[in-house]
Input
Amino acid sequence: MFVRLGAAIAAITLVSGAALAEGKLTDPQIAHIAYTAGSIDIAAAKQAQTKATNKDVKAFADDMVRDHEAVNKQALDLVKKLNVTPEDNDTSKALSKAAADKLAELSKLSGAAYDKAYVANEVAYHKTVNGALETQLIPSASNAELKSLLQTGLKIFQGHEQHAEHVAAELK
Amino acid sequence: MQPGRLRLMIAALAFGAIAVPAQAATVRIVMENLVISPAEASAKVGDTIELVNKDVLTHTATARNGDFDVMMPPKKTATYVLEKPGSVDYYCRFHPNMKATLKIEP
Ligand SMILES: [Cu+2]
Output
């Protein structure tokens, strides 16, 4: 528990720290962060599709792949339409680094221990991303369509957070 | 007009009247931004439910009592003819926060 909480706090600190250091984020950076955040959850879910044993956890992973791929496709369509090139940045890098570490950590677990750790991380991860969306990405977005896509994303991810919390409670 | 053909037409009309009761209606339910509206709809057995998915996500309309489970791909509309009466709570299997009730009269 201590390790998990520590990782979650570290991720949150990284996200807000990196973003704050940069000042106001630009739309190309925001698009990159949002897309990266989605890709991270897809990677985690794909790992879960092969490793999870509990049927609710498997179904949750399927939901994550389906939804995040749909939202990321929408994001790609939008940046193409707006002629914006997503721009890598410190927040995206911090997110990717934390995610890669987490994926490696989870890969060492199996069975019920894996299921629990994956779902707990999904709760923490969606909390982090939703916090970043609410306090930084949405307020910083200049383009109205990008802002609206982020708002839809927030709504979807809040649902995921609650769904993950529900699955986590069932696993106890 | 040939008598045979007239009989056929009458038969077709009669059959039509039985298959599609005059009061059969289409009830439209919209899923947008992960919300089902209206949250409570009323319909009758034989009515068609038109499920409009305005989101980029796949949704389902899944009855808690197992009566129906309809899947709607992104930006697509699905239809379903109500077969059984009752007050049915349904939700989306992929987004369990999406919940609504359908009151189906006999
Ligand atoms: Cu849904």
